[in-house]
Amino acid sequence: MITTFGSLRNLSRASREELLVLRGIGEAKVSQLLAVFEFGKRLAREPYSNRQITSPGDVFDLLGPEMQQLSQESVRVVLLNRRKHLLHVAEVFVGTGNESFAQPSEILRRAISHAAHSLILTHNHPSGDPSPSSADHQVTKRLRSACDAVGIELTDHIIIGCESVHSDDPYFSFREAGLL
User: Percentage of residues in the chain with pLDDT exceeding 90?
Assistant: First the structure.
């Protein structure tokens, strides 16, 4: 399987359909593999439940390795309590290619249901370039207004990409850039 997919990371990204076409792999084994990969993702997040998330680097450590591997855009919200400890991470939208759109109402619904004090919006750019688009700027403004209206702090909006010759950081933080 690793030979077919090139690496364990690529194997962990394979869909149910991609795994089912492998010789000797049936529905039961595919279900087991997918469960193991999901277990690994959850296990990697576990240390954060007792730790403060206070910087874009903390968010990148939590979500970056997984989100960098995605072939489509994923919008997630990191929900924090008053002490900036992780309450929950929720995927609120999955886009196609390089486009996604998450409604502020859906993001706030998640925050309110978990009694979050603050939230960090994050999404990936499958292209690897973490530079914000004009749509990213618009979503941030709309979400900030919505958060202000309900009394939930929008701590940051972080775009996850990859390190490149144009940027030393594999992410872009609206807060660090002074845009939030």
Answer: 56
What separation, in Å, do the N-terminal and C-terminal C-alpha atoms of the chain show?
A: 45
E-only strand ranges, the chain: 74-80, 86-94, 118-124, 153-160, 171-173
Indicate the DSSP class of residue 139.
H
CA-CA-CA-CA torsion sign (108, 82, 148, 73): negative
Domains and CATH numbers, the chain: 2-43 (no CATH), 51-173 (3.40.140.10)
> Kind and range of the H or E element at 131?
none
Q: Are 90 and 77 spatial neighbours (Cβ–Cβ below 8 Å)?
A: yes
Which residue has 């749509």 as its token pair?
A: 135
What global pTM score does this model have?
0.73
- How does pLDDT run across 94-111, given as a tens digit for each residue? 886 555 677 899 999 999
Q: CA 44, 50, 111: angle at the middle one, nearest 5?
A: 85
Closest CA to 135 of 111, 109, 102, 175: 102
List residues bridging with 158 in a β-sheet.
122, 173
CB 69 within 8 A of CB 170: no
Max distance between CA atoms of the chain, in angstroms, equals 55
Q: List, in order, residues 6 or more apart from 96 with CB less than 8 Å away.
A: 72, 73
Beta-bridge partner residues of 59: none
